[in-house]
Amino acid sequence: MEERQSSAPDAPRPATTAEARALSHPLRLRILRLVIDEALTNRQLAERLGRDPGTVLYHVRQLVRLGFLRAEPVRKGDSGHLERPYRITGKSWKLQVEQSRTWSTSVLDATREEVVDAGPRSTIAVQRLGVRLTDADVAALKRRLHAVADEFAARDSPDGRPVSLLLFAHRRRE
Questions:
Q1: Quick check: is 19 in a domain?
Q2: How far is residue 73's CA from residue 136's CA, in Å, rounded to a whole number?
Q3: Are 168 and 105 contacting, i.e. CB atoms less than 8 angstroms apart?
Q4: 11 pLDDT band (50/70/90 cuts)?
């Protein structure tokens, strides 16, 4: 079995403009999510995403160029054709993307597609509420959300079930 890279984050650094742009596309976020546990070829990615292989290949190449994916050695596929699988590098876990509407909505779009793809019984827990918080309370909330994410990233186990977590707090319109 191939060794799985831990998703436990190091101290994040600010993303470059090119990195932030790459992570601000829902299809690229979905590609990254699909290759966490196993290396997949462009054809396999396109099939799982229900997208044109040419479109997926464009996004895969962007992710490889920026170091988010690595190409693995060419292998012989089921049909006997040679194919190149891709695997996540974990770089995206080590970046802080500047909060922007484009990035935030891309994360939400990608998550929505993943939940739909996983089926109606895939949701483990959902909490949605609206509250009024002081600046100090908002800062405390951010610290707690980061702590929860770090705690469960450190628990990542090759024997565990694949689970995705989205911790998202936003300001409501006044």
A1: yes
A2: 50
A3: no
A4: low
